[in-house]
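Margin note: ligand = arginine.
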Amino acid sequence: MSEQQAKTKQAAGGKMWAGRFREPLDAVFEQWQRSFPFDVRLLPQEVAASKAHAQMIAAAGILTDAELERMIDGLDQVGDITPEFAPIEPGFVNPRLLGAELGTTPRSIRRWLSRQPEFCEIHVKHTRIALAKDDPLLLRMKNHFAIQANLDLDGEGACEEFPATTEADLAASMARAEDVHHFVELQLTRVIGPLALKLHTGRSRNEQIATDMRLFVREAIDTTVKGLRRWGLALVELAEQAKEAAMPSYTHMQRAEPVLAAHWLLAYVAMIERDIARLADARRRMNLCPLGSGAVAGATLALDRAIAARELGFDGPTLNSMDATSDRDFLLEFTQALATLGGHISRFAEEMTLYATAEFGFLDLPEAFSTGSSAMPQKKNPDFTELMRGKSARLAGAATTLAVLLKGLPLAYNKDLQEGQEPVFDAADTVRGILGILPGFTRSLKFNFARMKTSATTGYLNAMAEATYLSNKGVAFRRAHEIVGNAVRLGLESGRELDAIPLAELQELSPAFGEDFHAAIGLEATLDCHDVVGGTARARVHAALTEARQRLSSDAWAQL
Ligand code: ARG
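Resulting structure:
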């Protein structure tokens, strides 16, 4: 080794960009700028993208068939590594957060896991829990332990055993790796030797991170859509059980007209369907492969980019290398879609919180999702709905971070983009957490339909139906409105609802009132007079329920 090479090696400590440098990095800066502590969760995506790249360079003649085979096999082995702090299958449980609450024994963690709704017994059994006291990186991160499991939102228990990797060089490369790309290269070198150094031929980390994030978001969209469909179906089920139960609807938070409780619940299904459509739309737009874009100007090898695109399930390669390496619109769209979804979840949470108050009394909060007060023995607090409402703020925060991060960035890649990862992970984890609980919560809601009905049939909520009755008798609506207004005032002054005012008294207000009047303002008639597409007439809601169930169960959403 020449003196120059020795200096370089010492200065850069095995970095991917060592050659040009003589001075070592400032030690604090070096740790501070690393993305590995959070981008390690992109390990599966990085390995998949690296395999696709290997295929491409092999096709371009850089690797022989035998070398390609060794490379793919080595990458598979690297993909099997489970660094001690890797979050649970992409990061549902954040060990850093759990560490504070749970103590540090594997038993206490296992006990905690068994209480989580997403964990079936088999998950708990297959969960590997490692105390990581001796790992310097973990100590630095203030983690006491790590959990590694393969969660399946379906609860079907598709679990895998994870091979333990405790070798010293793994720990060392974990501590040294600048980012997940560097880590894979270090590990691949450990597994297959110097051949690993050929993998970087014709590629740049700029296209790698762009690809990894696309793969991550694509998967996160699929998980979110799955959870949304499950929540939508839970709402449909609840709406079906509500049959013809009525409740007041509100405008300006003042009682307006009676609606079917099913109609109200379907309003949330409509929001969910828009959320799904937004995510599906973003997914379609982002499903292109940046590999082969190089650092900025395109790969320096004549790569067949279609190979990598196909391998990774993309619809094709991206069309401009400068855009592809710096484009994070898909992160923005994803977080914005989640922020909108968060708004919907928060509205739902707010209504449940409100309707569970003694003042409304429309609903009894399920005990399994509520907590008591340490001070006031009578309390049952709506923690789940309040936390959902609160967590939606994080989603809006992620979208804001992305919007501000991207604004004003010159083309093409800039390191600022590294800051776009954590908010995306956090938003995906937040939604995944909520949607893991929300369908079960929704299914266990118990409404007080008698109380809802009383609220729907008192307070002149049939005034609009009464005005409609008059207009059907030929009275101009503006005039009908005024007549019914007078009737309401009469009722208010004498403490009577509209249907308790005798016909003779009403006829003094307008001769158009007839014998059929009472039938026209009864609850059922009041509901049924809204007989339009999207209205609360019983037959319309019945049909809407069937259609919503069909749409949410359709495979069209399953195969985005
Ligand atoms: N960790 C980096 C990121 O997230 C990976 C890309 C690094 N590229 C570079 N030219 N330094 O953006």
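Confidence is low (pLDDT under 50) at residues 84-104, 118-126, 130-167.
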